[in-house]
Amino acid sequence: MFAFGLTKSFERLPTGGSCISNTLINGCVARYNTKVNENFFNRKRELVQFTNAFSSPMPMLHVVLGPPSIGKTALVHEITRKKIKGKDQFSPLFINCRKGQFDTPDRVYDSIYSQFSPFFDKHKDFLKRIVGGQFSIGDVGYRLGERGATTSNDVTRLLDNISAHLPNWSIWNGNNIPPPILVIDEANMFSQLAENDKNLLKSILNWLVLNTKEEKRFHTVLTSSDSFFFNWIVKLLHIPHATPYVVGDLSKEEAEKYFEMHILPQYECKELEGKFDQVCKITGTRMMIIEMYVNEYKNSEGKLADSQFSVRESEYNWLKRGLSPKILAFKNEPDTPLWEAKDLIKTMDAIVKAEDQGYILADVLNKEIGEKKVESLIKYNYLHCRPTSRFANDIDVPPKKIGLTAMNQPSVCAMKDILEEEQQN
């Protein structure tokens, strides 16, 4: 048995969602695939902060949170693949749960083995000296395609063998070899495995804790767009075993540079030069939304009305549907909306009034409409919850308590439209 048992009952993990696609339109900067573009826009503070965190001699289980399409994956991949003076700083091992790589024992096994196998093969001479004996990748697991149906026991045995063949993090560092770091994108998709094999999921989470906090073998990074993911993790693993961070939007200064130096030249859109303040009121400082706006502006030959911007239209329609919550229940979703129209109106009013501040406190809205209703609004993507402000640089004076934000700036604009309509009725 691992040292850290999962003592609390298991609950289904929400997978979250968004009205906005995770795919950029003709994107060349902040992509969401596993290959980070070389022209990655430089978030200078986050790059330094996360590099330091991932380089700590005390391996941790890092949980990187943030709204959908904000650039979490691109940022983490940039950091873990970045060279300094021509030298790799990490040996990243990537698993992308968006591709359904954690829904069955067979897929879990292949996902883990396919990352660790080339890593072990690359460092086999070094590991022979450290582990001793005649080390080979065959000691770690089967070769892909050389086995029958995979069971949970096969996965557990693979995890145990990987642990047995990995030295302490300090040994990699002491030998000037980039240490391994495991990155699991959209880890809230663990819920797919939870529905099929709860015990295997518990074993995997225990294995992550064992190799980070206890045995100090490697850092692990879990990214998620789901507001409730960190709560789910700490419920299972206890608070000291995971550290949360938030990737926010760009600061306004960074977003203006991105707009003027990257996006406008890409779309040959000189007529918007020097007009970022005007554009920012519509788009906010999220890279993907800025690019979508410029693309649509260009395609409309400069005739794009604010209300016609596609993200704003989608957010407006979603908010209007939220005023009739009984029709909103997701298919196969057991939890129906708990708020009433008046609760959403109060929420929109609070968000709009706090626009310059950038957030409202969860405690305040909980008292106003009730905690269960707030959680329901978050679940249905009317609000995004920030359990921490660690490493988020998009709010000048970040909250010291749990903060709530709109899903994006176009949503704030749509809220203003709806509140004005309500006042006229």
Automatic annotation (TrEMBL):
<dbReference type="Pfam" id="PF01637">
    <property type="entry name" value="ATPase_2"/>
</dbReference>
<dbReference type="InterPro" id="IPR051667">
    <property type="entry name" value="Archaeal_ATPase_domain"/>
</dbReference>
<protein>
    <submittedName>
        <fullName>Archaeal ATPase-domain-containing protein</fullName>
    </submittedName>
</protein>
<dbReference type="GO" id="GO:0005524">
    <property type="term" value="F:ATP binding"/>
</dbReference>
<feature type="domain" description="ATPase">
    <location>
        <begin position="40"/>
        <end position="233"/>
    </location>
</feature>
<dbReference type="InterPro" id="IPR011579">
    <property type="entry name" value="ATPase_dom"/>
</dbReference>
<dbReference type="InterPro" id="IPR027417">
    <property type="entry name" value="P-loop_NTPase"/>
</dbReference>
